[in-house]
Amino acid sequence: MKPKEKAEKLVDKHLASIIFNIKQDIKASVMDASKKSALITIDEIIEELGEDFVNALRYWQEVREEVLKL
Fold first, then answer.
1. Cα angle 46, 15, 12; round to 5
2. For residue range 4-57, what is the model confidence (pLDDT) as tens digits?
3. What is the dihedral of CA 32, 22, 3, 68, to 10 degrees?
4. From CA 44, how far away is CA 17, in angstroms rounded?
């Protein structure tokens, strides 16, 4: 995937998450929206790294778990 396509895909994912969050609860917290956006990015990184980068994969999975704990 070309960088421009990846950028557009990430922005669309974040926007969809924010819109969904607001529709679910008009008083949706900024923290919840931020966490969901962070998780989108982390999931994207994990997907891109693949199994060849086991240490990096584990690191980003741990970061993901820490985001969920916030």
1. 60
2. 887 788 888 888 877 777 776 666 577 777 788 888 888 888 888 776 677 777
3. 20
4. 14
Give residue 51's pLDDT. Answer: 66
Q: Name every residue whose Cβ is closer than 8 Å to that of residue 55 and which is 6 or more positions away in sequence.
A: none
Q: Rounded to the nearest 5°, which phi and psi values hold at 2?
A: -75, 150
How many C-beta neighbours within 10 Å does residue 36 have?
A: 18
Enter the DSSP assignment of 52: G
What Rg, from alpha-carbon coordinates, does the chain have? 14
Determine the pLDDT at residue 36. Answer: 82
- Hey, what are 34's tokens? 């931020």
In the structure encoding, which two tokens stand for residue 7, read together?
């950028």
